[in-house]
Write a structure and sequence with these properties.
230 residues; single chain; 3 strands; 11 helices; mainly alpha
Length: 230
């Protein structure tokens, strides 16, 4: 394989990541029938464009305003959380929006590279890593979601109790789920009861829920006090 040291054209900043990804889109369908080397190099370049979008607020804003997103349900937003996940949106923009085949292709490419993206691997490493790890299909399977909704619990006394309890238990919980930041949703347990030996009764949970609801309502009603600044 020819060594690839430049994952994206040197003038990427001048032409803009969005324009570059549009150019990639016109070539992507041809790459599916060409060599693995070509595909690995192209994916490294898409990854590099995603890095520019992640790191440049103005480019990200322009990217989010493209007409192609207007009727697309999963369009990116001009928020820091969405910008952190620029890779999957860059892949979508490069692959295109043409139905189930495009959806499948985006899913494969994103699953192949998202682990490296989350680890902060540089774009110039992507073609080599794809080759060393068996290509797109093998990496897709290795990084595939295990299924279900992944939640990371924010620390509080409920989370500590769950962490410390090694036995199986059933629980009734009120959870507040926050906007996805780095690919995994965060949740905070607001109220709950649990039992190791038998199912917790909803009758026992009701007063706990009422107490939490009253406390939450009072907290929202309190006037916000601005913190002093130095």
């Amino acid at each position: 394989m020819t060594e690839i040291n430049e994952p994206a054209p040197r003038n990427l900043l001048e032409i803009g990541a969005t324009t570059y990804l549009k150019n990639v889109r016109s070539q992507m369908s041809q790459l599916l029938t060409r060599t693995d080397d070509s595909l690995r190099v192209q994916l490294g370049q898409v990854y590099a464009a995603a890095e520019y979008l992640r790191d440049d607020v103005d480019q990200w804003q322009a990217f989010c305003e493209q007409d192609e997103w207007l009727t697309f349900k999963g369009r990116p937003r001009a928020t820091p959380a969405h910008r952190k996940n620029a890779l999957k949106h860059a892949i979508r923009f490069a692959v295109g929006f043409d139905g189930a085949k495009a959806n499948s292709t985006v899913h494969r490419y994103n699953n192949a590279m998202k682990g490296w993206w989350q680890q902060g691997v540089a774009a110039q490493e992507i073609p080599k890593l794809l080759e060393q790890n068996g290509g797109v299909e093998k990496m897709k399977r290795a990084n595939a979601d295990p299924g279900g909704l992944l939640l990371r619990l924010r620390e509080n006394r409920f989370a500590h109790s769950m962490q410390n309890e090694k036995r199986q238990f059933d629980a009734i919980l009120v959870m507040r789920v926050f906007e996805c930041v780095d690919g995994i949703r965060e949740a905070e347990i607001m109220a709950g009861i649990a039992s190791v030996w038998k199912r917790p009764l909803i009758e026992d949970f009701e007063p706990v829920f009422e107490e939490w609801r009253d406390r939450d309502i009072r907290a929202k009603a309190l006037p916000k006090i601005s913190k002093p600044t130095l």
